[in-house]
């Protein structure tokens, strides 16, 4: 898990350098799985591992496009 976090942070730094803007902390926390847990059962249905992996995949694609 720590390796994934360090990889994500490295990716964020790379994005920040290329775009010249800081990645929002809330986005960084949600990607690195440090976000607050979902509280309602309705919200929990949206917090799936597959969705997080899909979001990470989209970020990697955007990084490659830059």
Brief write-up:
With 66 residues, the chain is mainly α. The protein is built from four helices and no strands. The longest helix is centred in the first third of the chain and has 18 residues, at 2-19.
Explain how this protein is built:
By secondary structure, the protein is mainly α. It has one domain. It contains four helices and no strands. It is globular and about 30 Å long. The model has no long low-confidence stretch (mean pLDDT 74).
Number of helices: 4
| Inertia-based shape | globular
Number of domains: 1
How far apart lie the N and C ends? 27 Å
Strand content: under 5%
Instruction: Give me the Rg, rounded.
Output: 13 Å
Q: Tell me the series of helices and strands, N- to C-terminal.
A: HHHH
Mean pLDDT: 74
Q: How much helix is in the residues?
A: 55-70%
Largest sheet: none
Structural class: mainly alpha
Spans with pLDDT under 50 lasting ≥5 residues?
Answer: none
Topology, number of strands? 0
Protein name: Leucine rich adaptor protein 1-like
Organism: Clarias magur
């Amino acid at each position: 898990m720590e390796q994934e976090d360090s990889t994500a942070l490295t990716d964020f730094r790379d994005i920040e350098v290329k775009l010249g803007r800081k990645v929002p902390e809330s986005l960084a926390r949600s990607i690195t799985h440090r976000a607050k847990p979902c509280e309602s059962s309705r919200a929990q249905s949206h917090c799936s591992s597959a969705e997080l992996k899909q979001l990470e995949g989209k970020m990697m694609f955007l990084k490659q496009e830059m």
